[in-house]
Specification:
The complex is a heterodimer of chains A (389) and B (572). Chain A is mainly α and 389 residues long. Chain A has 21 helices and one strand. Chain B is 7% helix and 34% strand. Chain B is globular and about 65 Å long. Classes of the chains: A mainly alpha (389), B mainly beta (572).
């Protein structure tokens, strides 16, 4: 991921470029105008907004419809936290200078992720006017990804995907945007689209670890586990010290039921990031599958030492306690687990078994119903629910 | 999500895993250790044997659910000539559209159920018309049992919209006695099982019903051409079982409510066994997309549903699955019946080892069945010893339920090959992949029945496909092992001996079989109990625990033959 950009400076630079060009083309008054614009831009860069405004107002008093001056003045208003007036000025600049990309970029900057859809419209326009406009491209990527992530967090993956698709239309050959679009598609469960976008990204930039990683995830979601494993191994060849990827590989291998191979992947992940809990937890799960209950208990115990609120490990230990007939211990651990992770159906299931054995039939049935209902809610698309009942 | 994530991307992986595991299938070969056991040889002899059956599902663009559910098959000796005959259940015409409330009819011979009689030379002849077994509705399942103890096997045929009981007249013909017997049922019946649940010497009848469904025009799947799919069972209401008590050998009384079988389910498979060895046969129902049911027989004519506390309601993680075919048999030779349930792809077939205390241990992982079956869908299935080595193996016919599955999950397949999982004594290994032949064929398989059609001691398999042909598979596996088939004739108990537990002991150890024609998916097996004897040709003892309570013992029985055991007047 690239570093965070200092947007006002970049966009300011973008804004003054056309004035330079204009100066070269014209001469005379135009040269003076260009010099004024450059001066104003420099003053803005030095945070001397009033000085910059004085220079610009002087220019505008001679030519009130100068789009570049309006654009810079809009920039000043934006800096002064006057977004309405800034927008008005940028729009006027865009209207009066239809060949200028700068006002559109500034509008996008003004809108930011809060008005991401509007920003992307402006950036699309900017990129149409100036396809090589690197700042517009970078801003497009930043606004789109930031806003999409926000939509996903607020539970609106549809909006996230729609936004990314619009951004991708604006810059179809941007591999970063393609990967981000893939991620948004995958949030919607559209793994085949995720595969397509990441493959497109890899065609543009073949050695692109982020795209390879995303492709592994997309293949996994699309149930193509061997391909997912292949891509994840490819990614790990580029980034062997990525503990997350080692963990991801382990999960893929578990899903493929290659438990023997999954264990070393989790162990390597753990070696790379000894403080993590998840690989340790997965090792416990594997031990249970292999019937190694003592080892599982030890692994779950280590998880809880690091994270006493780890619902998975609590469930694991609760299940082992249930199997050993230590029902009070099982009840205590499983009650904690369901409280910590109310949507974890396995915890509810073992809690229900324990309660049943303790003679608490009603509570047991309730927990069992919660467990099965949770699975209905998460029903996969193995057989598709109706679009219209 | 069980725990805190250590890195942002991990959360994604966990959700992706669940989708991968639950919603799709991997492409490419499953990874397994190479099997150690001998390859199996099952030869398709369908056409050569004179069987020319084509199941008619009547698929329509409307994707009416029965179209994909297929029908069952039966192996039975209806004329007591010592050779197994074949009964094949068929669908009926479905129009596009079919109005809701319609009960499809068989309006042409192409939709008839078929009875094939095995001739002396091992070929079969179609005797459907003469037998009077063409049927009427959209057939689903078949259960074979001698409900009136007259020595001739009768047939119960389930269907969508009403079932039929055919009494075997003993002269090659059958009479539809449904109305007189009072066993028509209703709704959408699937698998059925003959069982003497109250040990009164007369076979009762338990019938699974799938769900409340009619021909309403529901669109499931994406609104794209070729993407309309069969609807998920979650959108339909569950239905109760039917339990018909055999009152007098002619009349039945529906007693599901009195017997406590009131929990509505989505039953596709039924198996019977006395899992807790209390002397009363229990009933297991494989439900689709919900928890499974285990009805414990309390011995007083009532049942209690105990699947949860018996740890057989869900998988080892508490996950529900789409239960389809089922079998209940002692695969580890410890005297306690174990269970296997076929499921939909990404769910792993559910194997449960009897813990001998009324509970089961989920054993799909430890027995090796999880990795073998993760990406397959199992319908008809049966534990049986294909190589007569003394360990019951597992034969499963497979196919996804959605004929459009490849458009939504490209790695999954609608038509699949059969699975033969060899029991090594320590777990299962996939020998179908080294066996070739019929295992390389891809079928939309549904029903499966197992029996010894040529009485050579190697159990053969009959398979149905939905909207496709039947397959008769003769077991020609080369094996030096010996065998024994035990045919029971009850006197005080029901004549078929259904529910009796047979224990045989050789110098190599003991094996147990509960006599039943039920299990699998909508199908009915040869009722004779089969035992592979390994290298031993002598059975030191046979013990039969009859449903009547009589325990009968025989000693020093030579193998490689069919032994008929008549119920003694008294016993230990």
């Amino acid at each position: 991921m690239r570093g965070k950009l200092h947007w006002p400076v970049l966009v300011l630079a973008a804004t003054i470029v056309p004035s330079c060009c204009l100066a070269l083309q014209a001469g005379g008054d135009a040269a003076s105008r260009a010099a004024t614009l450059e001066l104003a831009a420099k003053l803005i860069g030095a945070h001397d907004l009033s000085g910059a405004e004085t220079a610009l107002q002087k220019l505008l008093s001679q030519s009130k419809d100068d789009p570049l001056a309006l654009n810079l003045l809009g920039f000043i208003r934006m800096q002064q936290q006057e977004p309405v007036r800034a927008e008005e000025l940028f729009r006027r600049a865009a209207k009066l200078g239809p060949h200028l990309a700068g006002p559109h970029v500034n509008l996008a900057l003004l809108f930011g992720a809060a008005r991401a859809e509007d920003a992307i419209v402006e950036l699309s326009e900017a990129l149409k006017l100036s396809p090589g406009h690197e700042q517009a491209r970078l801003l497009l990527r930043e606004i789109a990804t930031k806003a999409a992530a926000g939509y996903v967090r607020s539970g609106d993956p549809d909006r996230a995907l729609a936004l990314m698709l619009r951004a991708r239309e604006a810059a179809p050959d941007d591999p970063d945007l393609l990967v981000d679009t893939a991620l948004a598609a995958m949030e919607k469960g559209l793994y085949a689209d995720g595969v397509k976008f990441t493959l497109d990204a890899l065609r543009i930039r073949p050695d692109f670890p982020r795209a390879t990683y995303a492709l592994a995830r997309a293949y996994m979601g699309d149930s193509k586990l061997p391909l997912a494993e292949e891509q994840m191994r490819k990614y790990l060849a580029m980034k062997p010290d990525d503990a997350s990827a080692q963990y991801g590989l382990g999960l893929m291998l578990v899903a493929e039921q290659k438990v023997d191979e999954a264990r070393p992947a989790f162990e390597k992940s753990l070696a790379l990031d000894p403080q993590q809990t998840e690989s340790l937890f997965q090792l416990g799960e594997i031990s249970v599958q292999e019937g190694k209950r003592e080892q599982a208990a030890e692994e779950y115990g280590k998880v809880l030492t690091r994270d006493p609120r780890h619902a998975g490990a609590l469930t694991g230990l609760g299940m082992l306690a249930f199997r050993d007939g230590k029902l009070d211990d099982a009840e205590s651990k499983l009650a904690q687990a369901v409280a910590l992770a109310p949507s974890y159906y396995k915890a509810h299931y073992y809690y229900s078994l324990t309660l049943k054995k303790l003679g608490k039939a009603e509570e047991a049935e309730r927990e069992f119903k919660i467990s099965t209902d949770l699975q209905k809610r998460d029903k996969p698309t193995a057989r598709l629910a109706p679009d219209r009942p | 999500m069980p725990g805190k994530k250590a890195a942002g991307t991990w959360a994604f992986f966990l959700s992706a895993i669940s989708i991968a595991v639950l919603g799709g299938r991997l492409s490419g070969d499953d990874t397994q250790k190479p099997p150690t056991g001998p390859a199996a040889k099952f030869t398709e002899i369908t056409r050569a044997a004179g069987i020319n059956f084509l199941h008619r599902a009547s698929p329509t663009p409307k994707k009416y659910l029965p179209e994909t559910m297929g029908s069952g098959v039966a192996l039975l000796d209806y004329d007591n000539d010592g050779r197994l005959d074949i009964f094949l259940v068929n669908g009926a015409r479905i129009d596009d559209p079919t109005p809701a409330g319609t009960i499809p009819k068989k309006d042409g011979p192409q939709y008839w159920n078929r009875l094939y009689h095995q001739k002396q030379d091992g070929t079969f002849e179609d005797v459907t018309e003469k037998a009077g077994l063409a049927g009427t509705g959209y057939g689903m399942g078949v259960a074979v049992g001698d409900y009136d103890n007259d020595g001739f096997e009768d047939l119960y045929v389930t269907a969508y919209g009403g079932n039929k009981l055919y009494h075997n007249n003993g002269d090659g013909t059958f009479t539809d006695v449904t109305d007189e017997a009072g066993v028509a049922g209703g709704g959408w019946s699937t698998s059925a099982a003959w069982v003497d649940y109250d040990n009164d010497g007369k076979l009762d009848l338990v019938v699974a019903r799938y769900m409340k469904w009619d021909f309403s025009d529901l669109w499931c799947g994406e609104h794209l051409e070729g993407h309309r799919a069969y609807c998920h069972p979650d959108i339909f209401k569950p239905e109760t079982l039917l339990l018909f008590h055999n009152e007098d050998g002619r009349h039945f009384k529906e007693v599901s409510r009195q017997a406590g079988l009131t929990m509505p389910g989505k039953g596709l498979g039924v198996a019977i066994t006395d899992y807790d060895r209390d002397g009363y046969i229990d009933i297991f129902v494989a439900n689709d997309a919900m928890q499974e049911f285990l009805f414990h027989n309390k011995g007083n004519g009532t049942f209690e549903e105990v699947a949860l506390e018996s740890e057989i309601a869900v998988d080892g993680d508490g996950g529900t699955y789409s239960g389809m075919g089922v079998d209940f048999a002692d695969y580890n030779n410890d005297g306690w019946p174990d269970a296997v349930i076929g499921t939909l792809a990404n769910q792993k077939y559910a194997l449960y080892l009897n813990s001998k205390d009324g509970t089961f241990t989920y054993a799909s992982y430890t027995a090796g069945l999880g990795s073998m079956t993760m990406f397959h869908s199992g319908w008809g299935l049966r534990f049986f010893d294909y190589d007569n080595d003394g360990w019951k193996d597992l034969f499963v016919v497979q196919s996804h339920v959605l004929d459009t599955i490849e458009t939504s999950s490209p790695g999954l397949h609608y038509k699949e090959g059969a699975l033969l999982a060899r029991n090594t004594g320590h777990g299962f290994e996939d020998v179908s992949k080294i066996s070739g032949g019929i295992f390389d064929q891809r079928w939309a398989a549904r029903g499966l029945a197992v029996g010894d059609i040529d009485n050579d001691g190697r159990l053969d398999v009959l398979v149905s496909e939905t909207n496709g042909p039947a397959h008769l598979l003769r077991n020609e596996t080369q094996t030096p092992h010996h065998w024994l088939l035990v045919k029971l004739e009850g006197r005080k108990s029901n004549r078929d001996g259904i529910g009796a537990v047979i224990q045989i002991t050789t110098s190599l150890g003991s094996q147990w079989q509960t006599v039943s024609t039920a299990g699998s998916y909508c199908s009915s097996h040869d009722r004779r109990a089969h035992f592979g004897l390994g290298t031993e040709s002598l059975v030191k003892s046979i013990e039969v625990r009859w449903p009547s309570g009589i325990v009968q013992q025989l000693s020093n029985i030579s193998g490689d033959r069919v032994v008929t055991v008549q119920e003694a007047e008294t016993g230990r």
